[in-house]
Please model this.
Amino acid sequence: MMTGPAWSQKLRDEIGKAVIGQEAVIERLLVALLAGGHVLLEGMPGLAKTLLVKSLGTALGVQFERVQFTPDLLPSDVVGTMIFQPKTGEFSAHRGPIFANLVLADEINRAPAKVQSALLEGMQERQVTIGGQTHPLPKPFFVMATQNPIEQEGTYPLPEAQTDRFLFKLIVSYPSAEEESAMMQRWGQMTKQPALAAVSSGDELLDLRAEVDRIHLSPAVQGYILALVRGTRALAEKDGNGSKRYLTFGASPRASLALYQAGRALAWLRGQDYLSPALVQELAPDVLRHRIGLTYEAEAEDITTDHIVTQVLERTPVPPK
Model:
């Protein structure tokens, strides 16, 4: 059976033919694949978010579909609809782009809530309902969504119920000067565009999840995960002593499960056979930043969710390895 570092490296090498840099983001995407979770990518325009997800689908060798979310998009444009067949006089299900292994919801906050919610059943239940009939989605199945943090006009912010279904919310940052220079050299020639090949498969990914399940997680580390998540809820409670409250709500139980599953996947990717508190700390911002709600006071003082997560990490006692 393939080791975590070897599997990670062959996918990174292939994706690296098209995408330069973004090493941390790529590793998180691989963790999400192993943990069976969905990912929300947030970043400025032109940072290769779409290219990154498309390259991942190609390297993984799975069916990839991209849906451009727009204000006039309908739920049936995502999940499908019933179509009348004149020859038989019956209706049959026409499957939408959600019936793929890897679905890219590009600029997900540009479509209204009824379209965003069309993804909910698929993301949570791995099935969709068309015309009263339930259709299972292919395995493996992932939704990777992108959104732009600066545009407010013509956008529909994702409700908490939907953002909570994403395993990670990843922040895609600008490349370094060296990386941007390399991009110009690689993509500046119109006749020589990088071509990617499949170096893995959906079946291989499903098999590797059994290896991830073998990663040891001690009761102490499990207690640490619970303490971190419950620490966010404590900050959202009114203590009655007049001190400022910076959170309206803390992280849900999905956050505990996400840290548990993603932590073991990251440990396996890095060739470790147990989950350490250090890996939990590393994953905490990506797992928690979209699962806690800031108060108006916090926003007025320019306090971000990442500041709150850092505060919780500093206050929570770290168990021995």
